[in-house]
Design goal:
Layout (H helix, E strand, L loop, with lengths): L2 H5 L14 E4 L17 E5 L8 H4 L3 E3 L4 H4 L5 H10 L5 E5 L3 H5 L8 E5 L24 H12 L4 E4 L10 H4 L3 E2 L7 E2 L6 H25 L3 E3 L32 H14 L3 H15 L9 H11 L3 H14 L4 H15 L1
Parallel strand pairs: 1-2, 1-6, 2-3, 3-4, 4-5, 6-9
Antiparallel strand pairs: 7-8
């Protein structure tokens, strides 16, 4: 089977969760103190050996990402035990492996519930182009959480939250290195020196730092909001938020929204735009976007019309971000979005 055919399986996932929030759950020890059952009805991406977690069956994550070559080079140590936990819990995630693991997976049966997918690193890719798992992706695989973030971008999730991504190992000094251990939520741990020499480790951490910075830049360019909801830890590339606060509401429950309301709001906004009342139109579009969150039937054109309003109000940088979001999440409008993006980029050049 050709690589293009393997990756094509990821095409239907492009923007599948556009405008919905998602959680990337690492294996750090901090999740022992956080209530992961809150993730039961959320879009969730888990990594590596997460299915050892006691709440894994309840959460039933939709996506499972593996990046460490040890999972297919020494499967008896890592992958087979992780797979057994997943099979015992009768979960049915889409499991993502790098293309380098394809020969191994051809000889391995993950069971009837696991939906196997692959991704491929491409050195020619740039953060200036949209990420797409049905082709090659940025060659950023220093940590499985980094790959998971790229998958969240492909899925169109926005905002994106990290949980259990402690990354304490990023701050280890040379003096601490010999006795420092890489900890997880499960009991087993290994010393850093069991993985790499100090110089190798220092280089790996520098590369990881660079890749996180690059994906932070990608998020800014393409209008994604990424936050770290981990309790503690050293992953400081993204703004911090309190995990529990994401599941609280400061206002009483409102009656169910009329499903036609977002459509009416955008129609009213379009009328105001024709009258050149862009400020009021922008307010209506923001209301429509708030009412369009997590809907099965999404209202197309919100991002594009918001970009037009922002452009007319002179808020060019914001307009460019929303125009790029429209290009990502509403490919049917590419003929309008692309010229607008080029025009806005010209203003900013």
């Amino acid at each position: 089977m050709q690589l293009d055919d393997i990756l094509l399986k990821n095409a239907p996932l492009k923007n599948l969760h556009a405008g919905k929030r998602c959680f990337i759950v690492g294996n750090g020890p901090s999740i022992k103190s956080q209530d992961l059952t809150l993730l039961k009805d959320e879009v969730t991406i888990v990594v590596s050996s997460f299915f050892r977690h006691p709440d894994a069956k309840l959460i039933d994550p939709a996506y499972w990402v593996i990046a460490d070559p040890g999972f297919w080079m020494r499967p008896e140590e890592t992958f087979y035990p992780a797979l057994q936990f997943a099979q015992d819990k009768c979960v049915s995630p889409k499991l993502f492996f790098p293309s380098g693991a394809f020969p191994f997976l051809c000889q391995t049966n993950p069971g009837p519930l696991i939906d196997l997918h692959f991704y491929h690193y491409d050195e020619t890719r740039s953060i200036e182009a949209p990420l797409d798992f049905s082709t090659g992706i940025l060659p950023f695989g220093q940590n499985v959480v980094i790959v998971s973030l790229m998958l969240a971008f492909h899925l169109g999730c926005n905002p994106i939250y990290f949980v259990g991504c402690d990354h304490d190992f990023m701050r280890v000094t040379e003096a601490e290195y010999e006795n420092q251990r890489v900890e997880h939520f499960y009991p087993e741990s290994k010393k850093c020196v069991d993985y790499l020499t100090w110089n190798q480790w220092r280089g790996a951490m520098a590369m990881m730092d660079y890749q996180y910075q690059q994906l932070n830049n990608y998020a800014r360019i393409w209008g994604f909001n990424v936050f770290n909801a981990t309790a503690g830890g050293c992953l400081d590339h993204y703004p911090r938020v309190n995990y529990e606060s994401l599941f609280l509401s400061d206002t009483p429950s409102a009656p169910a929204c009329d499903p036609r309301e977002p459509f009416r709001l955008i129609q009213a906004a379009q009328a105001l735009m024709k009258a050149e009342d862009y400020k009021t139109a922008l307010d209506l579009l923001d209301q429509a976007m708030a009412r369009n969150l997590n809907r099965l039937e999404r209202v197309e054109g919100l991002y594009y019309h918001k970009a037009i309003c922002l452009t007319s109000l002179g808020r060019v940088h914001e307009a460019l971000i929303w125009a790029r979001q429209d290009l990502l999440c509403n490919p049917g409008n590419e003929a309008n979005a692309q010229p607008l993006i080029r025009r806005l980029e010209g203003f900013l050049s």
